[in-house]
Structures are given as structure tokens and as C-alpha cells.
Amino acid sequence: MKPKDLAIILLVNFLWASNFLSAKIGMEVFPPLFFTALRFSMVILVLAPFVTLPHGYWIKLIWVGILMGVLHYSLMFWGLAIAADISPVAIVNQTFVPFSAIMAVLFLKEQIGWRRWTAIFMAFCGVMVIGFDPVIFNSPLSPILVTLASFFLSVNLVIVRTMPGIGPLNLTFWTAAIGTIPIFGLSFIFEDGHTAAVMSASWEEWLAVGFSAIGATVIGHGLANYLIKHYPVSTIAPYYLLVPVFAIILGILFWGDIMTVELMIGGAMVMGGVAFITFRSRKKEVVESADSR
């Protein structure tokens, strides 16, 4: 990988990791569903001039909007909002990798061996260990919500893999466009204090919403899309294991996260399982690519 592209992929990791911190700051004032809806609104405003109508994919796009736009993001930000620390959320979020492997077996008829099954089992056991973290006991619902969010992300990825004709920019825009109104509706049903939040939010909270929308989504995903055009997925995917590492560092430095024994052991189990699945998948892709030549 060229030095310039290596710098870009490190920047993408940093932007995505910073999203956990920025969202946590924003949700000190904004309720989580309302924060999600505001974030999506900014994404729509920024990307609207650059998108087209995705002919032939409306049914699948609606499912993507529900799974990703409504379920994944609302559960993820809700879980992050009630969590005391950022680090456990960033680690548990990585369970989308073993979930994705399971979804690929169930719906795409892919084959995985006993080693990856073991890694999947280890990753989920790591989440259970993190659940015994004394900090987590203050908000035991948080890892459950984040795990559910990761599951819906994995189902969404299976659907997206069957939509080769739609570009990533369109996908990001329509996910936000389809999900925004339902999330606003859910927010006004289950949350209150919207007007007070808007009036009392300082520039820091609004900057957090803007960074989550533009920095993490528009710029972060835009740079990631640039990389995917120049390198195979198998080359890029392992680098994204740095996202939770960066998030943990940011959580410790700027949010006062506490590294407990349970978090370190459970985190090592989750990340170890995720790393094995990622690198094993990379090896499989390389072998298949060589065989097809």
C-alpha cells in the first residue's frame, strides 16, 4: 500500500473511532434517537446534490433503510448513550464481523471451517465476559443493544452484497433518507425535551452532530470508498481492526474510560476472534483469486 493510502486508511480509522466520542458528547444534550435523526438530516443535506435515483433496487433499499437507518443506528446510539464508557461499546460493536460470517453461511451459502466457528464462539464469549465488567453493571442494557445493532448491521451487509448496481454514495444517502422520518417519529413518541435540547445545545454538541454526520459518514465513508476502488477488500479489512483500538485510546484520554480486567480479557477475546475471522477470510479470498487466474 502506498504511504499516501496508508495515511488515508489510518485517517478513516480515526474518523470512525472518533464518532463514538463525538456521539457521546452530543448525546449529553440530545436524546439518542433525536441525535440520530439530526445526524441523518445533515447527511441528506450534504449528499443530496450528488445522488441519483437507484432504479431497480427500491425494495432492497427500503430494507436497508429499515435495518441500517432505523434499527442499527438507533440501537447503537441508544446503547452508547446509556453506557458509562465508550470502550465497551466500541469493542462489542465488532461483533458484526462474526454475525456477518454467520449470515453469509445462512443466506449466501458460504462455507466456513471449524477454526472460524471457534473464533465466532470466542468473540461472543468475550462479549459475555465484558458483561461482567463492574462498569457495565451500571448499564447492563447497553451491550445488549449494541449487540443487536451489530446483528442488524450484518443482515444489512448481506442485502448490500446483492446490490452491485448501486454506488456507495447513493447507498449512504438513501439509507439516511429512508431512515430519517421513522427515527424522528420514534423519537417524538419515546423521547421528550427536543425543543429544550435544541435551545440549550452549545456549539460543542452541534459540532458533535456535525462531525458524526460529515466527518465520520460523508468524509470517512467517502475515503473508504476511494480505498476500495484501489485495493481488494481483503487488503483493507484488517486495517479496520484499529477502529476499536483508537476508540479505546480516545475514551481513556477524553472520556475517562476505565480499563478493568473484565474489559481487557473480554476485549482480547472479541478482538482475537474478529481478527482471526478477518485474516482467515482474507486468506480465503487470496486463494480463490489465485485459483481463478
Outline the biggest β-sheet.
none
Q: What's the number of extended β-strand segments?
A: 0
Report the sheet-strand fraction.
under 5%
Helicity range of the residues?
A: over 70%
- N-to-C order of helices and strands: HHHHHHHHHHHHH
Structure class: mainly alpha
Q: Mean of the pLDDT scores?
A: 89
Terminal residue distance:
22 Å
Q: List low-confidence stretches.
A: 286-293
Question: How would you describe this structure to a colleague?
Answer:
The protein is an all-alpha fold and 293 residues long. It has one domain (3-286). The chain has helices spanning 3-26, 32-47, 58-82, 87-92, 96-107, 114-130, 141-160, 168-190, 194-200, 203-230, 233-236, 242-255, 261-291. The radius of gyration is 19 Å and the shape is globular. The two termini are 22 Å apart. The relative contact order is 0.21. The model is unreliable at 286-293 (pLDDT under 50).
Q: In a nutshell, what does this entry contain?
A:
77% of the residues lie in helices and 0% in strands. It contains 13 helices and no strands.
